[in-house]
Amino acid sequence: MSILSKTALALCICASPLQAHEFWIDANDYTVPEGGTVVATFRNGENLVGSALSYIPGRSNRFEMVVDGEVRPIPSRMGDNPAISVEGLDAGLVTLLHETREQTVTYREWEKWVSFTDHKDFAWSQQAHLDRGLPQEGFREAYLRFAKALVAVGEGAGQDVPRGLRTEIVLGANPYTDDLSDGLPVQVLLEGAPKANAQIEMFERDPSGAVEVTLHRADEEGRATLPVAPGHDYLLDSVTLVPQEPEGERDPVWLSLWAALTFAVPQG
Question: What is the annotated signal peptide range for this record (predicted)?
Answer without folding.
Answer: 1-20
